[in-house]
Design goal:
Bound molecules: inosinic acid
Shape: globular
Radius of gyration: 17 Å
Distance between the termini: 12 Å
Order of helices and strands: EHEHEEHEEEHH
Helix content: 25-40%
Structural class: alpha/beta
Largest sheet: 7 strands, mixed
Length: 193
């Protein structure tokens, strides 16, 4: 079967192809010649993933899925959540986002947080939602240089190092994205095997 993944991010495409294996051919937005800037205007991760998947399904008539990820911090009521990429402002980078988060946690004892990835799948018009969560906590300072986004300040449960101090393969084996993709994989296996 063929599924369009509503992204052109090479890293995400490789990771998903790796997990789903040979049973599914994963096409990117470029592969279907979609160069549109798909709006992400919802105020939830589920909402944004669905907007992107529905946009592709409605315009191109192909089975597809889309993802959205956020870092949810308990003592900040789930912030930055769906706004993770632009927490410190539309034009801001990861550095500014991390500084804002550390600042907002100053003096708070509860530093529990989780990364959550939502995948919205549409096959023959039927919509399904999958979640992948990795629980952890926000460190006091930045630790490590690998990865991207909030990796230097996120310490996953059961570890003493941040995502940015781990090898890429270690992080990818426990990550929110990996877990959401595994959920998708299990669903496809059950449906088509
Ligand atoms: P996206 O939905 O995958 O584009 O993720 C939205 C934002 O969440 C990114 O811009 C990052 O700030 C953050 N993010 C997503 N995944 C990760 C991760 O694995 N590590 C650190 N930050 C992440």
């Amino acid at each position: 079967m063929k599924l369009v993944f509503a992204t052109n991010n090479r890293h995400k495409l490789d990771e998903v192809r790796d997990i789903l294996g040979d049973k599914v051919e994963i096409l990117s937005l470029k592969d279907i010649e979609c160069f549109d800037d798909i709006p992400e205007t919802a105020d939830t991760l589920e909402g944004n993933a669905l907007i992107k998947a529905r946009y592709i399904y409605d315009k191109f008539g192909v089975d597809c899925f889309a993802d959205d990820t956020g870092l949810e911090v308990e003592s900040l009521g789930g912030e930055p959540g769906v706004y993770s990429a632009r927490y410190a402002g539309e034009e801001c980078d990861s550095e500014a986002n991390m500084q804002k988060l550390l600042q907002n946690l100053t003096g708070k004892n509860n530093r529990n947080a989780q990364f959550r990835t939502v995948i919205a799948l549409i096959i023959n018009g039927e919509e399904k939602i999958f979640n992948g969560i990795v629980k952890g906590r926000i460190s006091e300072t930045k630790l490590g240089n690998s990865g991207f986004g909030y990796d230097p300040i996120f310490i996953p449960e059961g570890f003493s190092e941040s995502f940015a101090q781990m090898t890429g393969s270690m992080k990818n084996s426990i990550s929110h994205r990996y877990r959401a993709t595994e959920e998708l994989n299990n669903y496809l296996n059950g449906k088509y095997d």
